[in-house]
Amino acid sequence: MSLDYTRQEMMAIATGREIRDGELAIFGVGLSMLAGYFAQAHHAPKVRAMTEGGIYGASPIGGLPWGIECNRISANATSFTSALDALGCLVASGRCDVGIVGAAQVDRFGNVNTTGIWDEGGEIGPRYRPPKTRLTGAGGANDIACGARRYIVMVTHEPKRFAERVSYVTSPGHLDGGDARARHGFVGGGPSAIVTTLGILRPHPETKEFRLDAWFPFSSVDEIRAHTGWDLAVSPDAHVVPEPSAAELAALRRVDVTGALRKQA
């Protein structure tokens, strides 16, 4: 019997399932924090969580925080450091096991754009020029993308967000594929999954091009391919993602107690 849940909740639970107990993890605000603290509440009680602002060992109180240092996330923290410690030390040194970042635009190698959208979605060329639409910027996502051992991208699955090539690389994925990250000296391993409102994409082990690994019960391979801006390959092991269990939904909603993110995408 199907449970009542939204696409946003499915995406958050699927992302949270990627987090393993005991890992040092860094989450941003919004859905990434919901996914991370869902994992802590459900199956990873010993996850060592931190924010980009340096709040370590906390869990949300009274609902999801509006920022990375607000009272809801700082009231029960183990320690307070700084963004320099969190991003410049723990993440940049490769000590951080996993991060979760959002994206306005992502491409077939997992490169993320949160800087701006240019005309026709094309590249900006050799010289920077103002974008047609200015986005929020990197925040700490670039640091996480460069230094975390792996990171997960969360994004609404729409054609405008899934580009053959992003117009600006705010946070590097696997660059142009293959061993590009190693050639450029990145400490971190790059994106291990793109979790969307329709399914999950993972990189090919050699080419690093993202392909469809799984789809949600309310979606399909055809729908996902139609909403992707490149010729999306399908993994030979592609499968349907299990629906959230009653225990998973209960844990998720204890984190998002106000229901702020409980909406259809």
Task: Describe what you observe in this structure.
With 265 residues, the chain is of the alpha/beta class. The chain has a single domain (7-255), classed as Glutaconate Coenzyme A-transferase (3-Layer(aba) Sandwich). Helices cover 23% and strands 22% of the residues. The chain has eight helices and 15 strands. The chain has helices at 7-16, 31-42, 71-74, 83-91, 141-147, 180-183, 221-226, 246-255; strands at residues 24-27, 48-51, 55-56, 79-80, 98-102, 105-107, 112-113, 116-117, 133-134, 150-155, 162-163, 191-196, 199-203, 210-215, 234-240. The strands form four sheets. An eight-stranded mixed β-sheet has the order 2-1-5-10-12-13-14-15, sandwiched between helices. The protein has a three-stranded mixed β-sheet with strand order 7-6-11, with no helix packed on it. The chain is globular.
Taking the sheet with the most strands, its summary is: 8 strands, mixed
The helix tally amounts to 8
CATH architectural label: 3-Layer(aba) Sandwich
Tell me, rounded to a whole number, the average pLDDT.
92
Q: Which strands sit side by side, in order, in the main sheet?
A: 2-1-5-10-12-13-14-15
> Which secondary-structure class do the elements indicate?
alpha/beta
Which residues form runs of ≥5 with pLDDT under 50?
Answer: none
Number of domains: 1
Cα(first) to Cα(last) distance is 22 Å
Question: What string, H for helix and E for strand, traces the elements in order?
Answer: HEHEEHEHEEEEEHEEHEEEHEH
CATH superfamily: Glutaconate Coenzyme A-transferase
CATH class: Alpha Beta
CATH topology label? Glutaconate Coenzyme A-transferase
What overall geometry do the principal axes of the alpha carbons give?
globular
Radius of gyration: 18 Å
| Beta strands, count | 15
